[in-house]
Amino acid sequence: MNNILVAESVSKNFGDFKALNNVSITVPKGSIFGLLGPNGAGKTTLIRIINQITMPDTGKVILDNSPLQPKHIKDIGYLPEERGLYKSMKVGEQALYLAQLKGLTKAEAKKRLKHWFEKFEIENWWNKKIQELSKGMAQKIQFIVTVLHQPKLLIFDEPFSGFDPINANLIKDEILQLRDQGATVIFSTHRMESVEELCDHIALIHKSNKILDGKLNDIKRTYKTNTFEVGLVTQNETQLMEDITNTFETSVADFKSLNNDLKLNIKLKDNETSNNLLSFLTSRAEVNHFNELIPTANDIFIQTVKNN
Ligand code: ADP
Ligand code: MG
Prior knowledge:
Structural class: alpha/beta
Bound molecules: adenosine-5'-diphosphate, magnesium ion
Strand order of the largest sheet: 6-7-8-3-9-10
Number of helices: 10
Largest sheet: 6 strands, mixed
Strand content: 25-35%
CATH class of the largest domain: Alpha Beta
């Protein structure tokens, strides 16, 4: 099978509270899978179940074609939401210790850590104590330790929280590289900025239920409205507007332009193509801007959560 992980109808209660209600996800090998949802949706609960920290009440999780079992823990690199490092231990000492817990020899761990510390230009942190590091710095160490044993499945719970934009970008690039080297990545987030650049698949969880999932591009296709934003230059704006509104449905456009264009959104009917619109416009004005409005992950997130 081409799925590295399948969760089937997973439910989890905490007392009377249902934190997950029949949630199923399918994660294809080699994908970057975004587990999205507002705070409290149930993302971390699902991630903790996949990592065998808690047990589901009902449902099951299949990893690489076999039901979850203790030996799988070594196959997963897991960055928890609550980052825990021993505050009084030194960075290098701790990284070596954690790497050996994952099954690396000390020599191999040292070699790989040296590589990562050089890559992140943090060689001089080796002898610092964890408590001397800022939150973002400690998180970088934990990221390294998570990926060091090169597991085939990486699960990052809110990997970008706590990072400034530069370091968030650094981590983003690393995640893409890990995917290119063959790893599968699942990460949770309640913020959508990272989703566009990273995810090929998503699942949206809201109030303990999965309310949307699939390939991000397929989802975008179903959410798009055949609307184009256009910027036009004309001598006779009134006439042009009249022509357009007689033929198409329009709305106010919101994009930046350096020129004093007439800006508007134009929605096509189902049987019309972008070429129909373009030839209509070019015969009447100079077209300075022509761009299909594709819903962003953020648009989809907000719209779907509101409708549920
Ligand atoms: P998310 O990661 O999507 O923000 P969580 O999975 O952490 O959400 O939490 C989902 C809900 O389950 C929240 O309402 C949270 O308070 C509750 N919850 C999570 N873990 C526990 C627990 N151990 N005991 C009681 N309630 C919990
Ligand atoms: Mg969480």
